[in-house]
Amino acid sequence: MSEILGIKFMKQSLMRKVLYALAPIILASVYFFGWRSLLLIMVSVFFGILAEWTFKRKSKKPVTEAVFVTAVLYSLTLPPATPFWVAAVGIIFGVVFGKEAFGGFGRNVFNPALVGRAFVYVSFPKFLTTEWNMPASGLLGGFGTYLTPPVDALSTATPLITFRSTGQLAEYFDVALGRVSGSLGETSAILIILAGIYLIYTKTASKETMGGVLLGYLAMSTTFFAMGVSQVPHPLFGLFSGGLLFGTVFMATDPISSPKSIEAKWIYGILIGVVTVIIRGFALFSGGIMFAILIGNTFAPILDELVKYLKSRKSAKAGNGGEKVG
Fold first, then answer.
1. What is the pLDDT of residue 321?
2. What is the torsional sign of CA 68, 73, 78, 81?
3. Contact 150, 82 (CB under 8 A)
4. Measured at the alpha carbon of residue 64, what is the angle toward residues 61 and 70, in degrees to the nearest 5?
């Protein structure tokens, strides 16, 4: 265990690998939107640690390093101009009601980062749905400013919001690179893909879950697009937009709130991908991946039990068949 400012932390190598994967994305958020991005992340980390420490101090148990991951992931789902007090309220809610209320680390049913994000999304929608900032460009980018200017028109909002409102598609290169308005961590698709490769290579995140989400999304999105459903954009555009890749790589693969068996992980991922397309196309929310993962969290324990039941039933049938043959 390590200690910072008198607070004891439980070392978790798995969580540190996730933070390593997030480091380039954090730097990219500063490059695109300015130093306020880093300050927003620091505020979330501080109040996330404070919330968990409040529950641990009486029992003198250490604070888990997982809270760093929760706070960073949560803050990366926020727009760069999100008020600090909103960020603080959200992470406290996520840690308390998404984690500690279930008994702490390892017992939570839902991803605590998404619980916090969903809470501020429905409680303070103005800050998370209408106030966006222009991405910086050039060699220094946002490293030379505190916060980039706010968008001044609907055509410069996030790619999915713009598509739903006007039908216009942003340039694929800009979307893949991250040179678009959006939340701190969802913009650079290339960096998120590289992070996903690293997490799979180090066996930190489930490739089955990631593959399931992408399979479910592409299958459903391609089907609707081929049918001419106007609310659904080209599958490749949707893949790089709206935080789908960020949610796939970092949120859906949370080892605590996702299934444990390989078969269940595939089903879980496909469910998330399919629901994401449905929410994006037909609900009020332009993103969809956040609520899709929370819905997937709800079914995760059931999917594990279902796979276990089917396997035991198959084994029983095989055993009975063997006895008949004998």
1. 62
2. positive
3. no
4. 140
